Each structure stands twice: as C-alpha cells, then as structure tokens.
C-alpha cells in the first residue's frame, strides 16, 4: 500500500492513533509551542473560529451533518471558554458556571455517537440545535437562582481540583477521559467518519480541560480539532468519489485516474463472478450484494502488490505494476481457488445471507440454511507489445485484451484464469 494512500486515512487504527499521537505531542511540547506562538495572540484566538466556520460551511453540501453539529458545538464552547483565563481566582458561582460548560460539551459530543446522520439544516439537525439552546437557557436560569453559598459545598465536596495535576476539577477530567476512551473504542469497532469526528473533539477538549490554566491552550486544542475535522471532510469526500460503497474497494473512477498516469510494465486482470445474474434471481439482490462483498474481501488479500478495483456490477479489476501476465498467474490462481473454496451460508432464500464466520454472531446457527460456493473467471493481459517486445501498449488495448481473455475463460468452462498471451 502506498505510504500516503487514502485507505490509510480510512483505517480504524489511523483514525484513533493519529489524533492520539498529536495529543501526546501537544502535551509534551505545549510550553515550546506557546512560546513560539506568543507573538501572534490575535491569530491564535481567531484561528479556531475561521477553521470551524469553514467546517460548518462545508458540512452541508458534503452531507456531513454530524461534523457540522460537532463544529457548531465547538464554536459555541470556544466562545464561552474564552471568557475564562483561568479558574483559580473565580468566585464559586463562576466556577460552577465553568463546570457546567466543561461538563456539557463532552456529554453532548458523546451523545452524537448514537444519533442518525442527518444534515445540519435538516429537521433533525434543527431539533438538536433547539435541544442545545434549551440546555443553555436551563443553565442560565439555574445560575440566576443560586448564590455562592448554594454551590460552595458542591465545589468543596466534589469539584475541587488537584493543583499538582490540573486547575480543573478532577471529577470532570475523569468524566471527559472516560467518554474519550469509550469514543475511541466505538471508532475502532465501527470505523466510521461519523464517530471519528466525535472522538477527535472529545480528545482535544479533554486536553484543553486538563491544561486549562495554560494561556491559549484552548485555542491551540480547538484549532487542531478543527484542522482534523477539515481533513475528515476531505477524506470522506474522496471516499464518496473514489470508493465503492458496497464493497469498500476503489471504484471505476479511481481506476481511470490510475490508468491515466500509469506507464511501463503492468498487468490487468479482469474478474467476473460466474452466473451472478442467476444467483441474484435465485437468492435475491441482498444475497447478491453479500456475494460481491465476499469476493471483494478475498480480493483484498491478493498478493503481488495488487491494487483491486470494482469495475461495475459483478466485474472487478486487479492491477499489477511492474509484472508481466505470466508472473501474475500464481497470485490469480490462488485468488480463484480461495473464492471457489469459500462456503457461503445462506439462511432462507428470502433472508440476507450470513457468511459462515458470522452465523454464531447473529444467532442463526440453529435454523435451516443452504451452503453454496461461488466461482469466478479471470482474464489476464499485460502491456507488452508483441510487435516491438516493449511494454508500450495503450491502456485501452490492454483492457480490450484482458476482456478478451475473460471472454475465453467464461467460454472455456468458467472458474479459471486465462492469460491471453498463452491462451
């Protein structure tokens, strides 16, 4: 996989550990960073507003409703937090106000994990914003009714900080850390941009809380969070444009761009699922979708530094750079064999199919089921020109040759790999 492949940005481990790495780096270098940025106080305090506003603006056309909601929460929180330089010399009621703010932000961020993905300006998004407004009004009314004496016991009993650790209340730090850790596990489990957005902001809002008495630390943390949110929108947009949503393989557009820049020796293998239309008619389209997902997952394991694409329908393309067609045959035959030997367990023709490894997970092991095997045909061609013995064939000609080889494989009985050069 290339070092800067977008698939790395989409992996669950990257989505968790890259922000964690930035957070750890920030913790160890915060003093040096603050000294470096000290001459630019106006820029530092303005930058989060600029970045978060861009994120909010882009979230609507790119259908990133959760990102927009999170960014809006961060803007509101940053505006309120900026009114507090520290909490050491504040009155008890001001401290209580601070605690309400830093408790509400992580809780509201965490709740978004369990909300449906909707546009910011949708009915659902507006209802959520009204809920936030209700919380603000409720807090304001609460603060109007209490005095320093009413909350001093609460501060002394539950919200006192440990000065050696942080000037912020220990209880709030623990709550934020717990929510951040749970959010990280959700990202690792579900691996969605939706959850990644929430985790990033929980993480950096927690860092800002721990180091709250450091000047401009909130601005730096919120700026980093906003930058990662913008990166998330970019990678998500790339995913929508170039990644097939059903199989999670690179799509046809990604293949076309790849072929525009390819040169030298390479091999194209075109793969087609045998009798796929008949399979769809017999078991239903949802079963057909599972078959395509299964084939895609096995294709991802293809050796030989292969790049895998979904070409359309039941057709896939495998690209081998720097190899001729004969060198690729062992990898392709191994792939064909793995697919043919995989037992696909189907419980009832009218239900969605369950892969054999998922039967127990879904509690379907005690019902009637059918086990089927699917096969694929593969046609192979490379860029070597027989006339010149140079790898200078046009990409269109290589594709035509691979398609011709695929046609021969299907006519030859299917479940086979045909190399046009030696057919």
Automatic annotation (TrEMBL):
SMART domains: GGDEF. The keyword Amino-acid biosynthesis does not apply. Keywords: Membrane, Transmembrane, Transmembrane helix. It catalyses: 2 GTP = 3',3'-c-di-GMP + 2 diphosphate. The lineage of its organism: Bacteria, Pseudomonadati, Pseudomonadota, Gammaproteobacteria, Alteromonadales. Residues 264-422 form the GGDEF domain. It holds the Pfam family GGDEF. PROSITE patterns: GGDEF. Its EC number is 2.7.7.65. This is diguanylate cyclase. CDD domains: GGDEF. One of its GO terms (biological process) is negative regulation of bacterial-type flagellum-dependent cell motility. The chain crosses the membrane at residues 39-58, 65-81, 93-112, 124-143, 163-187, 194-211. The keyword NADP does not apply.
């Amino acid at each position: 996989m290339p070092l800067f492949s977008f698939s790395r940005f989409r992996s669950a481990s990257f989505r968790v550990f890259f922000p964690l790495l930035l957070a750890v780096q920030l913790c160890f270098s915060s003093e040096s960073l603050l000294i470096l940025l000290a001459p630019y106080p106006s820029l530092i305090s303005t930058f989060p507003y600029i970045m978060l506003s861009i994120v909010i603006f882009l979230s609507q056309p790119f259908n990133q409703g959760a990102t927009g909601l999170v960014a809006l929460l961060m803007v509101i929180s940053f505006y309120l937090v900026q009114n507090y330089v520290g909490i050491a010399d504040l009155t008890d009621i001001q401290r209580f106000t601070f605690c309400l703010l830093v408790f509400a932000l992580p809780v509201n961020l965490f709740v978004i994990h369990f909300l449906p993905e909707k546009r910011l300006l949708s009915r659902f998004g507006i209802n959520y914003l009204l809920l936030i407004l209700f919380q603000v009004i409720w807090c304001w009314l609460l603060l109007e009714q209490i005095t320093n004496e009413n909350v001093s016991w609460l501060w002394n009993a539950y919200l006192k900080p440990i000065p050696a650790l942080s000037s912020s209340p220990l209880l709030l730090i623990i709550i934020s850390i717990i929510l951040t850790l749970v959010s990280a596990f959700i990202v690792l489990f579900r691996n969605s941009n939706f959850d990644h957005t929430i985790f990033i902001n929980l993480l950096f809002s927690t860092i800002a809380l721990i180091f709250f008495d450091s000047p401009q630390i909130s601005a730096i943390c919120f700026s980093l969070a906003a930058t990662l949110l913008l990166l998330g929108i970019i990678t998500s947009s790339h995913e929508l444009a170039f990644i097939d949503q059903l199989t999670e393989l690179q799509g046809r557009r990604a293949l076309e761009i790849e072929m525009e820049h390819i040169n030298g020796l390479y091999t194209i293998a075109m793969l087609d699922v045998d009798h796929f239309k008949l399979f769809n008619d017999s078991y239903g389209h949802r079963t057909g979708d599972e078959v395509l997902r299964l084939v895609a997952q096995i294709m991802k394991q293809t050796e030989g530094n292969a790049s895998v694409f979904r070409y359309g329908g039941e057709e896939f393309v495998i690209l081998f750079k720097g190899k001729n067609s004969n060198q690729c045959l062992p990898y392709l035959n191994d792939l064909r064999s793995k697919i043919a030997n995989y037992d696909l367990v189907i419980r009832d023709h009218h239900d969605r199919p369950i892969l054999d490894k998922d039967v127990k997970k879904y509690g379907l092991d005690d019902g009637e089921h059918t086990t089927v095997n699917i096969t694929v045909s593969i046609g192979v061609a490379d860029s070597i020109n027989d006339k010149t013995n140079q790898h200078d064939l046009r990409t269109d000609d290589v594709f035509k040759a691979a398609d011709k080889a695929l046609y021969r494989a299907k006519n030859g009985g299917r479940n086979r790999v045909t190399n046009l050069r030696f057919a």
